[in-house]
Design brief:
- The chain is globular.
- It has about 80 residues and is mainly β.
């Protein structure tokens, strides 16, 4: 995701799924005003990773929450 020019921040994590245990989802923040749609971002990811690693959903946020250490707060996401 960071390789996409419109992405400033990104986080990918597992979301519980009844059949697969977990599925990948992503939360992204735009570098500028324009952020591509979910389908375009998923296609960008699918070009470089295995199909099972492509997030089933991509949520857009203005800014990702951070911990005091500066790391992305995945629990808040």
């Amino acid at each position: 995701l960071y390789a996409h020019p419109a992405i400033a921040e990104a986080s990918v994590f597992g979301l519980p799924h009844p059949r697969y245990g977990e599925v990948p989802v992503a939360v992204v923040a735009a570098r500028g005003a324009d952020l591509p749609g979910e389908d375009e971002l998923r296609a960008h990811i699918a070009a470089v990773v295995a199909p099972f690693k492509v997030p089933v959903r991509v949520w857009r946020e203005g800014q990702l929450p951070r911990l005091g250490s500066g790391k992305i707060d995945k629990h808040t996401l």
